[in-house]
């Protein structure tokens, strides 16, 4: 495909993803109330224990802006099967026919991994808020700005969801030949630091054990992806070596005497 056709294909994929996200945002508006009840439960428990804790909307339209922001992020989560499919549909034309079967398998893995990462963050974040606000001294009050509170939640939900999909994307790029397994392996130190920082932010307390519970699944997924990339690199190298050996053998093979006589007799007959 020419560059213009690639850009047209990318535009069509982005439009389909945007439409799916808008439809998901409509569902996000419907799920706004139960979602808010869930994430504000830690503050309600603090209030029930006799402490002052509530969400503060700093402007007249603050509650509406918060609703829109939550609906868009929930729309991204609800529409994840569509935009993940569009991502793979844009990549898979560069693959061979046998490699597309692997791409379908990775697509089937990326959707539950993304949703699982989001669920892991949603499960951990309310406990994190309750644990961190528990350090407020007696007599103090927690008036949490709504935009900051929700942005903290939503960013970490998407961060965990995308982090679980990144290993699948790395393997997909390796299958297209754009990224080698050794290149991915060289960045393992940076990946470990980033994962530990994100897990420390989402951990429901300051103890390192809980942080490791959140970080270990992400690190396992990354190193599994590295192992798959290295395996595919070796397999690709063996295949190329066999093709090169076969090509060299056919090029070095001379023409036999019988082939020369048959060629001569056919030429004389003509």
Strand content: under 5%
Helix proportion: over 70%
Tell me the number of structural domains. 1
- Structural class by secondary-structure content: mainly alpha
In which order are the strands of the major sheet placed? 1-2
Query: How would a textbook summarize the main sheet?
Result: 2 strands, parallel
Sequence stretches where pLDDT stays below 50 over 5 or more residues: none
**Radius of gyration (Å):** 28 Å
Contiguous helical run count: 11
Report the order of strands and helices: HHHEHHHEHHHHH
* Coarse shape: elongated
What is the mean predicted local confidence, pLDDT? 75
Distance between the termini: 45 Å
Descriptive notes:
The chain is mainly α and 270 residues long. The protein has one domain. Helices cover 81% and strands 4% of the residues. The protein contains 11 helices and 2 strands, in the order αααβαααβααααα. It has a two-stranded parallel sheet with strand order 1-2. The two termini are 45 Å apart.
